[in-house]
Structure formats: structure tokens, C-alpha cells
Amino acid sequence: MDKVYLILKILITLIVVVLFVQNIRVVEVNFLAWSLSLPLAMLLVVVYVLGMVSGKSLMALVRRLRASRR
């Protein structure tokens, strides 16, 4: 089973590397009054990390609410 996880980790890493290499062009991002230019791959990483942080925070809130109801 450890070999399956290792193969899966290597496959996911390769997919991420290919995604990063193929998306290096610079894009402009506008949010309200802010504007910045950055590589698309960097934008994808930032959005992914923000999604992880907000998802973890939301799950912690849901667990806390469930625990307080019991």
C-alpha cells in the first residue's frame, strides 16, 4: 500500500510541475481598486492556498458548532 501512495504522490507532483511550467505567462489581476501583474502559475498557487486556509477555517467552525450543540 505504501508503494501506491508513493506512486500517487509522484504523479500529483508531476502534474503540478507540468501545470506550473505551462502557465508562466504574466496576467493582470484586478480586485476592487487593486491591480497587480503576476505569473498565472503563481496566481493558481495563491488561490489554492487561500482555498485551503478558508476551507480549514470553515471546517473548524462547523466542528465547533456541532460540539457546542451536543
UniProtKB/TrEMBL annotation:
Superkingdom of the organism of origin: Bacteria
Alphabetized UniProt keyword annotations: Cell membrane, Membrane, Transmembrane, Transmembrane helix
Residues making up the signal peptide according to the UniProt record: none
Organism, scientific name: Halomonas salipaludis
Protein's name in the database: DUF1049 domain-containing protein
UniProt cross-references to InterPro entries, sorted A to Z: LapA_dom (IPR010445)
Keyword Cell inner membrane listed: no
Domain Lipopolysaccharide assembly protein A residue range list: 22-69
One Pfam family in the UniProt entry: LapA_dom
Gene Ontology CC entries for this record: plasma membrane
TM regions (residue ranges): 7-24, 36-62
